[in-house]
Amino acid sequence: MKESNTRFVGKVLYHLPEVPSTNAFALELLSKTKPAEGTVISAYHQTHGRGQIGSSWESAPGENLALSFIFYPGFLAPVRQYLLGKIFALAARDLIGAYIPSKPAFVKWPNDIIVGAQKIGGILIQNSIQGEKLQYTVAGIGLNINQRYFQQYDPPATSLTLEAGETFATDQLRDELCARIEVYYEALRDGAYQWIDQMYLKHLMMLDQPAVFQRQSNQETFEGYIRGVSDSGLLIVERQGIPETFGLKEIRLLTFSN
Q: Which CATH class is domain 13-202?
């Protein structure tokens, strides 16, 4: 990696020509040794990238960012582990937003990055808890950078180059992402939980706006308002004046109400 302004994130870099999954590589590495905190695994081509709950992630070789980060957040109580997803989502959103300032970039709960109504990135967090302590965190981040053609997805996919009309140096963006992650991670380590929560809500897609949802258990659709995220990371949706909380894959945002 080129010299950057980071103190530790990305100072150790494994850049792989091809790997099934950068997260899987990171987990295998952790099973054999203890990499330095902030170690980054980067792949030119990730053949079996994953999203949340086993969903797939498409990435053309050499055109996007497929990264995994290794951290040891032993300072964080396991009940607050949801904050890790927030800081990585915020760092990725900030990077995307810096290059397309004319179009708002949002975090779609829990940690997809959305431009307009199109997905430009996603985060997969895998934590290991031993006793009452977070042993390690592997944060996989996939960002669409220079890819122009995608399969049909819901929501549809986009990329920086499609939104900004130019191509980008992925190595430079990787370095910038490392710097942004380091800022948020150090804020988390310093206990800035309220600030992180505020920043997440500031960029949370559809906050306090009418939307249509689907309850995944019975396919019921209903109108409601996203009111925030609970202390345990659950989505708070107000329906007919009554707030309900939902976990990952329990609810789906369908369309926006008029």
A: alpha beta
